[in-house]
Design brief:
Order of helices and strands of chain A: HHHEEHEHEHEEHEHEHEHEEH
Distance between the termini of chain A: 62 Å
Structural class of chain A: alpha/beta
Oligomer: homodimer
CATH class of the largest domain in chain A: Alpha Beta
Helix content of chain A: 40-55%
Shape of chain A: rod-shaped
Radius of gyration of chain A: 32 Å
CATH architecture of the largest domain in chain A: 3-Layer(aba) Sandwich
Number of helices of chain A: 11
Largest interface: A-B, 29 and 29 residues
Number of strands of chain A: 11
Largest sheet of chain A: 7 strands, mixed
Strand content of chain A: 15-25%
DNA sequence: GGAGAGTCATGCCCGAAAAGCATCGCTGCG
DNA sequence: CGCAGCGATGCTTTTCGGGCATGACTCTCC
């Protein structure tokens, strides 16, 4: 039995007339007649009652016509799904992201993407920097929206920068540093630092090393495992913190932010992916939307 | 695209090896190779990555393999359903029945049938005699388990008798007639009759006419629309009733039952169907079970 | 590094089967 | 009774799936 038999039979069942069905199927009537006979022989059940004024369906024919129609529809849908998958309009995407640095571009990118390609499910995973790199390497994540990993952490990954965000100092609003319009690196050394956990944010710590290069190392007050606990510690006067300027958006007025005058340290925010382990078309599609959103943020 | 393409591709997707799949499919490897190529060309998407040590599935291939497998399973199921329908092992049956006269045979028949042919759904409709004949004629019922309709009511129907059940007199336990071991027809005339509604049970009334043939017509106390209200009226002393002996089973000890000595009126209980309007194989199958149950009841 | 085994693709031919054409048989209608 | 409309049948043509031989490639093993 082939799909041809189903197509032919379904058409005959709809028209109840071999001649008309044959014309619609662009085949000669005898060919259609024989194919339907073959189908009935193979199933071993009469599906049609031939009369001189057309045909009628038997009970079996009615059932089979309904089932055959469903099978044909499923077949078309299967092909369409595969094509949509290849076009990046179908499937599921695992995306790891660093919440604070991507706050400006991820929501608009996601909104536009979901509207344009509703059949792709995007699963967002709010993760620490090192968790994203690990997830990408293990193939659990397809894409990462993240801060650029440093050399040692970038093994087997590629990173495409989209935004450069300067570091700023965050402190409690009543902190001495908050009285200055801007600060210099050596002034930071007077205050203990609230930082992210070294275990999960090794890149952040490398960056700190760069900032304080040539200076005596800063005192570390406490290591936090997320932005929210870092904010709480800083707001509580436990110390000051170095964060990307975008974090200001997430944190709001609970802290004061001051730019750093004499350093050129930026965080680069962008798209990470594994070197091997394909990014699906849907993933590439998603990247386009992220890039587009990043461009808008720059202005 | 034909089912052959799906069968071939699914097998290749399972073996990840054209040569082995071809052997399993009983075709030569080049033939298989070409059919899968044709499939990919038609869909316009690469489903397989050919390597020198076999093939691997692309993401699209994985999706399509799963969908194709489902389609093939559905196809087999569709054919099996149609065959089962033709064998009378699948489908839905609308059966009208008269509850009291069939109390002995319908439950065991139904139980055995449901066990033997679980994929047939039997919808039972508890109906009055005239409703069954009307339902059969309109094609809403496929079979009726009923008392034989008289000539005027049997137009366009066939009836196959299975049981002959004598009529008995039902009266309240404290009724004068209940003191006699058996009664004669003329004794009934002294008491008003509780009967079924003439509109819905015309055959029942014809039968009453036969019983009282040559006698003065009986007084009718009240017309009931179901056995349960008839029992209530009789038990309340409103009058006596003529019912099939089998009704004793349904009613129990609320009433007294006495056989009638000098009449030969029986009710015939059996299977009714429309003359035209096919009975499905499942229906025929069901009839067999009913006949079998009826035979057991006789003994 | 070369031989060999295993893999899938390609070229060519054959045969099965689907399609086309002409025609038949049947039935209902005018 | 003849004609129109329908599906089936007989025969021919065409298409295409399948088989065989072989090629191209790569990995393994000696």
């Amino acid at each position: 039995m082939e799909l041809r038999h189903l197509r032919y039979f379904v058409r005959v069942a709809e028209d109840l007339n071999f001649t008309k069905a044959a014309a619609a199927l662009r085949v000669a009537q005898p060919a259609l007649s024989r194919q339907v006979q073959d189908l009935e022989d193979e199933i071993g059940v009469d599906l049609l009652l031939r009369g001189p004024r057309g045909v009628t369906l038997t009970a079996e024919g009615k059932l089979f016509a309904a089932e055959a129609k469903q099978i044909l529809a499923n077949t078309d849908a299967a092909v369409e799904n595969v094509r949509a998958l290849a076009r990046g309009e179908y499937g599921t995407l695992q995306v790891g992201y660093a919440p604070s640095p991507t706050v400006d571009m991820l929501p608009p990118a996601l909104a536009a993407f979901r509207k344009a390609v509703p059949r792709v499910t995007v699963n967002l995973h709010d993760l620490a920097g090192d968790e994203i790199t690990a997830g990408l390497r293990r193939g659990e994540l397809e894409l990462g929206l993240m801060v650029r990993p440093l050399k040692a952490n970038a093994e087997g990954l590629t990173f495409e920068p989209l935004l450069r965000v300067p570091l700023v100092v965050a402190c409690a609003p009543n902190h001495p540093l908050a009285k200055l319009p801007r600060v210099k690196v050596h002034q930071l050394l007077d205050h203990p630092l609230v930082v992210f956990r070294r275990d999960d944010y090794s890149d952040y710590h490398h960056m700190l090393n760069e900032v304080f290069l040539g200076q005596s190392p800063p005192r570390i007050a406490v290591e936090c495992d997320s932005m929210s606990s870092l904010v709480t510690e800083v707001a509580g006067g436990r110390g000051i913190a170095l964060v990307s300027r975008l974090a200001e958006r997430v944190i709001g007025a609970r802290l004061a932010f001051r730019s750093i005058q004499d350093t050129e340290v930026f965080q680069e925010v962008g798209l990470g992916r594994a070197l091997k382990g394909d990014v699906t078309p849907a993933g590439e599609n998603f990247c386009d939307y992220v890039r587009h959103a990043a461009k808008k943020v720059k202005r």
